Amino acid sequence: MSALLEVLDVVNERLIEHGEDPIAFESDCREGICGSCGLMIDGVAHGPWSGAAVCQLHMRAYRDGDVIYVEPWRARPFPVIKDLVVNRSALDRIIAAGGFITAPTGSAPEASTILVPKTWAERAMDAAACIACGACVAACPNGSVSLFTAAKITHLGMLPQGQPERGRRTLTMVAQMDREGFGGCTFHGECQEACPKVISIDDIVRMNGDYLHALRAARREAGERGNGPG
């Protein structure tokens, strides 16, 4: 037996054999890609291994006889559906608020048509690695979703295609984040420690800068409209 999720599989098989209900938990790819397997293991989001999701947590992380406590994510915007399964649709609504590009681009251009500095491309790819598992929320003492939101904003904001809607995207996604009832970020740093993709809180700093810039621009535009001829 190699992985913790396989242990849960075996437990469920035995429960079913005895006519009992299996433990409800989520998983899909079991390769650390989909993010559906998020759980608290011994009070730590995704368990003791850094840079790994629950599905990548092997039993060699424990000794024979260890007691392992498994819990669902604990956050108000993530209501528990059953057992270890929570509703994470709040993350989907944040994406729907602005985590996309609407400008028509036609067919895919040649790779060298739009020049992107290597450091920008690498930063965008690092942010795009976010798998929307919710570990950052579960680990944060404030229940903040800032790291997730910042990763999605950074992913698009570092690329030329994302520039036309950069300000609007930041304002709408941050506004939706607040509407969902997540807590505020106070830079504890627990989010980046729990993130299975090791996304940095530097992205939160960037998001905050983009937000203030976009807010000033929106207020300036609103003021200009108000002072113009009516």
Structure keywords:
230 residues; Fumarate Reductase Iron-sulfur Protein, Chain B, domain 2; elongated; 2 domains; three-stranded antiparallel sheet; 8 helices; mainly alpha; Ubiquitin-like (UB roll); two-stranded antiparallel ribbon; 42% helix; 5 strands
SSE order and pairing:
Blueprint: H1 4-17, E1 40-41, E2 44-45, E3 70-71, E4 80-82, E5 85-86, H2 89-98, H3 118-128, H4 135-139, H5 146-157, H6 166-179, H7 190-194, H8 202-227
Antiparallel strand pairs: 1-2, 1-3, 4-5
Helix pairs in contact: 2-6, 3-5, 5-6, 5-8, 6-8
- Average the pLDDT over all residues and give the rounded result: 93
Determine the structural class based on helices, strands and strand pairing. Answer: mainly alpha
Q: Which CATH architecture of the largest domain? A: Orthogonal Bundle
In N-to-C order, the SSE pattern is HEEEEEHHHHHHH
* Major sheet: arrangement of strands: 2-1-3
Q: How many discrete domains?
A: 2
SS field, number of helical segments: 8
Strand content: under 5%
What about the largest sheet? 3 strands, antiparallel
What is the general shape?
A: elongated
CATH topology term of the largest domain: Fumarate Reductase Iron-sulfur Protein, Chain B, domain 2
Report the top-level CATH class of the largest domain.
Answer: Mainly Alpha
Helix content: 40-55%
Distance between the termini: 73 Å
Q: How many beta-strand runs?
A: 5
**Which regions are unreliable across 5 or more consecutive residues at pLDDT < 50?**
none
Radius of gyration, in Å, reads: 21 Å
CATH superfamily of the largest domain: Alpha-helical ferredoxin
